[in-house]
Design a protein that fits this description.
The chain has about 280 residues and is α+β, with helices and mostly antiparallel strands. It has helices at about 60-70, 105-110, 145-150, 205-215, 240-245, 260-265, and strands spanning about 15-25, 55, 80-85, 90-95, 115, 125, 135, 140, 160-165, 175-180, 185-195, 230-240, 250-260.
């Protein structure tokens, strides 16, 4: 938890801008939904932009980070979860509380109103919190798909992984195909962390914790079957105080070409927060 209270006043101090590379250590599948199926194509295509290039939606990356931080903080338990949807077979449960010092709600935002808990009485939330963290769609770096890789791909930019589900009684195979961005592909990620109060200066450390958890988890579908292992590299962190926007003051480069270990060391440095001034 943090030092935020109901009396914490919010006013823009500045923004931390984090950019870098997301490397695919194994094939990556982030699905496009049933509406994108084509005759003769894979059963489960990846999401693509208007030019037919795969990308990582900011919502997918942001949602995975939130899920991992909820789990690591002990918040993925019935008493801490609320329903976003109760449609049978499509239930969606996430963490939300009305505690002003709840780091997950501070990072990802919180809406007021009545929400039904998974167990216990309904949550009557009155503390609205603006999301501090913005995660943008990550475009594919086309240069990361080398000519040698293209020779072995099923499509210009993607591969098709074949899988089988075996019936335990008849041993009948039920084949399915999964479109993936190949191992070795690289995406450009960009995140912006708003610092709206002095108490927000410690939120970067929690974001880095989520990024490190993701490296030992999986992004997208098929994670338990080998897909979705990623790694962050070439990270750059810049600070843009309020004066950057108000009067054109220069930004401050805090880190360049670093890995997550260096970023975490910076975020946990006792003197780091003192650099985040208007």
């Amino acid at each position: 938890m943090s030092s935020h209270t109901v009396q914490t006043e919010l006013k823009l101090i500045g923004k931390l801008v984090l950019e870098g590379d997301l490397h695919c250590e194994t094939g990556l599948h982030i699905g496009a939904g049933k509406g994108s199926l084509e005759i003769g194509g894979a059963d489960n295509p990846v999401v693509k932009d208007a030019f037919g290039r795969p990308y990582v939606p900011g919502s997918s990356l942001r949602g995975k980070l939130r899920s991992l931080l909820e789990q690591s903080s002990g918040l993925a338990v019935p008493s801490e979860l609320v329903y976003l949807s109760k449609r049978k077979g499509q239930e969606v449960r996430i963490h939300q509380s009305d505690r002003p010092d709840d780091l997950v709600c501070l990072l990802f935002g919180r809406n007021p109103g009545r929400m039904e808990r998974v167990t216990g009485e309904a949550l009557e939330s009155v503390n609205a919190s603006p999301a501090r963290l913005s995660v943008y769609d990550a475009p594919l770096d086309l240069e990361s798909i080398t000519p040698q890789m293209r020779e072995n791909l099923d499509d210009e930019l993607t591969e098709v992984k074949s899988e089988n589900a075996i019936d335990r009684i008849t041993s009948q195979a039920n084949p399915r195909t999964l479109e993936r961005v190949p191992a070795g592909a690289r995406f450009r990620v960009r995140m912006v962390l708003d610092i709206l109060a002095a108490e927000d200066r410690g939120l970067l450390a929690r974001l880095v914790e989520g990024l490190r958890l993701l490296e030992d988890d999986a992004l997208g579908g098929g994670g338990s079957r080998g897909s979705g292992r990623v790694r962050f590299a070439n990270l750059n962190l810049r600070w843009r105080g309020r004066s950057f926007y108000a009067s054109g003051a220069p930004e401050q480069e805090l880190l360049a070409g670093a890995d997550l270990g260096a970023l975490q060391a910076l975020a946990n440095d006792p003197g780091f927060q003192e650099k985040l001034v208007e």
